[in-house]
Amino acid sequence: MFKFIKSSSTKSNWLVHSGVEICFWGRSNVGKSSLINSITNISNLARVSKTPGRTQLLNYFADENKVIVDLPGYGYAKMGTRENEKMNLMIQEYLENSTNLKHVFLLLDSRRGITEIDAQIISYLKSLRKPITFIFTKLDKLNQSEKSKLLKLIKEIESEWFEFDYILVSTLKKTNIDKLKEKIEHIFIGG
C-alpha cells in the first residue's frame, strides 16, 4: 500500500531508494493529487485542494520499491517571481538528475487542450529523452462533441509533432483509471 514518505526541495534531501520512480506533473489544479489518490485507491493520500499552487515541494509516495513523485504544478500566476523561479529550478533539477525516474506522466486539462505553456513543457520534456505519457484529465467535464474535438486535436498534434502515448481519464467517474494503473504497474515491474 502506498504511503506518503516525505517532501523535498533539494537534491540533498530527495528520497534515497533503489526502486523505480514515476512522476506526475502538469498545470496547477489539473488534478495531479486526485489522480494519485485514484490510482492508489487511497482517497486522502495526496492532499487535494481547490486552491492552485498548493503543492510547492516534491512529494514522495512509496509502496516498497515503487515510488510516485508528485511535482508542483506549473502556470500558477499568483506566486511571486522569485518563488516561481526557485520552484522551477527544483523541478528541473529533479527531472534532469533523478537516476530512479523512469517515466513522466504529464497531466493536461481536457477542457483546455494543449496551451502555450503546455507546449513549452512538452518541448522541454522531449529534450530530456525520458518516456512520457500524456494524461488528459477531467474527461467527465466534456460533452461528446468536445471529446471528439479533443481526439481530433490529439491526432493533429501527433501528425505535426510526434506520436505519443496518451490516456484520457476522469477520476470522478473512474474512466480509464484501470488502464492507467496497468501502464504504471508495467513500468514498475520493468516494462
From TrEMBL:
Q: Which Pfam families match?
A: MMR_HSR1
Q: Name one GO molecular function term.
A: GTP binding
| Listed CDD domains | YihA_EngB
Protein name per Swiss-Prot or TrEMBL? Probable GTP-binding protein EngB
Q: Which residues form the EngB-type G domain?
A: 18-190
Q: Which gene encodes it?
A: engB
The positions making up the signal sequence are none
**What GO CC terms are in its UniProt record?**
cytosol
InterPro entries membership? G_ENGB_dom, GTP-bd, GTP-bd_ribosome_bio_YsxC, P-loop_NTPase
Q: What does this protein do?
A: Necessary for normal cell division and for the maintenance of normal septation.
Keywords noted in UniProt: Cell cycle, Cell division, GTP-binding, Magnesium, Metal-binding, Nucleotide-binding, Septation
Superkingdom field:
Bacteria
Its taxonomic path starts at:
Bacteria, Bacillati, Mycoplasmatota, Mollicutes, Mycoplasmataceae
Q: Which cofactor does it need?
A: Mg(2+)
What SUPFAM superfamilies is this protein classified in? P-loop containing nucleoside triphosphate hydrolases
- Keyword tRNA processing set for record: no
**Which family is annotated?**
Belongs to the TRAFAC class TrmE-Era-EngA-EngB-Septin-like GTPase superfamily. EngB GTPase family.
**Among its keywords, does the record have Chaperone?**
no
- Alphabetized Gene3D superfamilies for the sequence: P-loop containing nucleotide triphosphate hydrolases
GO term, biological process aspect, one:
division septum assembly
